[in-house]
Amino acid sequence: MQLSVQEVLKLSPDDSSAKAAKSLVMPGKWPRLHQDDRAVWGECQGSGSKPYQVQVDQTGPTFRCSCPSRKFPCKHGLALLLLRAQHPDCFSVAEQPTWVSEWLESRRKRVEKQTAKAAETALEGESAAKSTPDPVATVRRESARLDQMRAGLAELERWLGDRLRQGLARLPNQPELWNELATRMVDAKLPGIAYRLHRIGGWVNRGEQWPARVLGGLGQLYILVDAFRRLSALPAPVQADLHNALGVTVERETVLNTGERIKDDWLVLGQRIEEESRLWSRRVWLWGITSHRTALLLDHAHGIRRFNQNYVTSVCVGLTLAFFPGNAPLRALVIDEARVGNRRSPVNPPTLDESLNTLANALAANPWQWPQPFLFGNGIPCRNGNGWGLQTPFDHRLLPLTVSDDNGWLLLAESGGEPLTVFGEWDGETLHPLSAWATDLFWTPEAAPA
Question: What is the DSSP string of 59-77?
């Protein structure tokens, strides 16, 4: 599978790596350039006498280079794929050299080992489930955490009452309120509440409708407080959603052992990478070709933007997923290695009414899941005042977009004024587009984090 220049640049760990890779896209710097069905490899002449050995496993894509760089992928790996995208005639089909075949073999063995370990973990999980843990210690730990959470939510409830009594007009002059309370919520074992407080605080004084948006966010916090009081009376899937909203994590092993499993060819609909305080978060949205299920893969990386598995938007990957518990399961973990297929797009994309109904049902099942995936067919990009939107061709309804002006013009140019199918993340007010396509086109925004 050959990636486009834009798709290769999206794999870059940062802007400096992408810039450095572009400077190496010169066939004269590469004495050897080869490929086969599994891998792409070459030698890049650096400052030393011995060229760097660069190789890419196309099933990932996964990179390896003999250079000392700690970035992944390094500039040489990116440059190799950029070269193939821009100068495909420079690559000849050849037999893999030892340094390539040995690496691919080690990757194959590692996958087999991981698969065996997953099976062993599942057996251990079944064995552990059959064994009886110390009930007294378990109850004591759970009781202590619940007490901390109750105390934290009680403080949150008092804080919400104060905000309503004092009104919202003072909030633009009190930015410290949100950080102070968020810190106390983390201490109370409620990191999910802390995240929501930061999010709501960011809305203050942004746009004309900020009071309504902030008031809605505060109301949702109160619903969380009230739901926690009724926790024991709620169905188990709703309890799982509530725990997730509060920040109570489910162990990875628990999901792998007990989560709903679906094996399918999953289309990568889009992905979004964000950074805050050197913590990189990546959301990869998948759509099952057979199951018609939407799945979310959530990954984190510290320091640099490096994730274990790369995904290319518009490409199908064969995966078995284990879903986290919930009333409308969305987040999932990958159980086995990705098997890369061809590019394609969803058939029969939904109309705006169908998309809104799907969104309404998802929010009714789990009102605390944000952002929500949103797939919409038959939308024409258009300017809407100072912003952008998608307009339906016949009744001219408008769906607002959050997109940079440059990307808005690019999206309009790609569409040629004709309807597109657009996928993105709905934040409650606008759609953040992550990909768009017609019959022979697939557009994604620039590689920089939103």
Answer: TTTEEEESS---SSS-HHH
